[in-house]
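Let us work through a complete example step by step.
Step 1: write down the sequence.
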Amino acid sequence: MRHDSTPPPAHRTRRTEGTRVRGRAERVVSAVLTATHEELGRVGYGALRIEDVAARSGVNKTTIYRRWPTKAELVTASMRVAADEEEAIDTGTLRGDLLAVVMRTVRTSQTPTGRGIVRMLQTERADPEVEALSRVLRDRRWQRMTALLERGIARGELPADVNGEIILDLIFGGLYARLIHRGEAVSEDYAAAAIDTVLAGACAGAARLPNGSQQEK
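Step 2: predict the structure and record it as tokens.
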């Protein structure tokens, strides 16, 4: 009788099947979340349909619903992934970090998807689900920007008792007012001048609040 040392086919399948499934699952998730992000920028939250996400991604609608039972869960997952995929910034200086973040925001806002998402956040804020999504994005952005400011404090670029919210509100509030509300361009020179102005004030002790007035996120 011939003895074949080759493992049975079923064993080979079990060893490799998990890798294939995981790889396919990752591709499905990536395709669906990318399509959701694009559809969100195209039509906004209210008009977004799972059928359109399925058509754009090439993934069956029932597969999408199994993983994300509601539209809110799908959109939140898509926005979180988009935010997490942004490359971490550490130029070595606080000024450089802030300028890099500002210019990345400017570039994103100029893409069709970026413009669509900004429009959605502006016009659909009355929708509780859109407001919840906006809050998630704000919290994640605040965490990242706080870490950036803390690095600056550790390097001695800012006073230890500086109020980070004032700094970020002045820089990014002005940015959004110019870029979104007035529809005007934001050049790197303009952004650098705005950042320098705010940091100079902060280093001079202006970005502080009286005791008991500290804002919390």
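Step 3: interpret the result. Residues 143 and 217 are 10 Å apart (CA to CA).
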